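Researcher: Here's the sequence for the chain we discussed earlier.
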Amino acid sequence: MKDYIEERAIEAANYIIDTRATVRQTADKMGISKSTVHKDITERLVRIRPMLAAQARVVLDANKAERHIRGGLATREKYLHVTKF
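Model: Thanks. This is the structure I predict for it:
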């Protein structure tokens, strides 16, 4: 694996762990796709640094478990600003 890919995977994992960021937030911050972030964390990082991958995975699993709540809150917020005629 290329060195820059390994560095990117480690950087993404550290960002996720430090900020409890989602895959989407990490992708936006790093300027890469969500698919790349996910593959870096779930496949590549496991081979490079398994302990770091496990820590990042805990955050990603927590984000996934909360995803439906955030979506509901976003929808609620959207409709609170809609005026009724």
